[in-house]
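Hello,

Our lab assistant flagged a job as stuck in the queue for most of the afternoon. It eventually completed. Since we weren't sure the result was trustworthy after the delay, we are filing this so someone can double-check. Below is the sequence as submitted and the structure that was eventually returned. Let us know if re-running is recommended.
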Amino acid sequence: MQINKFFLGGALILAAVVYLIFSSTQASAEYFMTVDEVKAEGTAAIGKSLRLSGAVLGDSIQYDPETLTLTFDVAHVSGNNAEIEAQGGLALVLYQAVNDPSRQRVTVIYVGPKPDLLRGEAQAIMTGKLGEDGIFYADELLLKCPTKYEQAVPEQASSN
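-- returned structure --
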């Protein structure tokens, strides 16, 4: 009888721990998506915590320094690194993405200081949520600008 009580108590504690782990991972889950995937999800993507990747369209960048509101559009870029390398590398893929009017696009709004690397053909990786209006509201913004680094490499190599 004593063993059954310990077994039952242990099973209840284990069930509670499993439930807490499961519920906390579901609440903080983030989905990494490309622009095409967000568009394909449609209304199912609204309100989900997402990490979105895309190529910044330079002519769409608008910044209000008084409200620290940054608005820009991103075009679809594949999330598969092997595919990007097969197409000629990140710089070429980003260039093609911003110059192809047939690519899917999403408008992004980010409130915060304007990053120095924000320019056309930069890869933006953002964390946030898609609003009912179809705009992606970013909480975090990371940028990769491969052309900036590719131009700097020969200068660094020749100075050594």
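-- support follow-up --
The delay was a queue issue, not a problem with the job. The result is valid. The chain is about 40% helix and 30% strand. Residues 9 and 95 are 61 Å apart (CA to CA).
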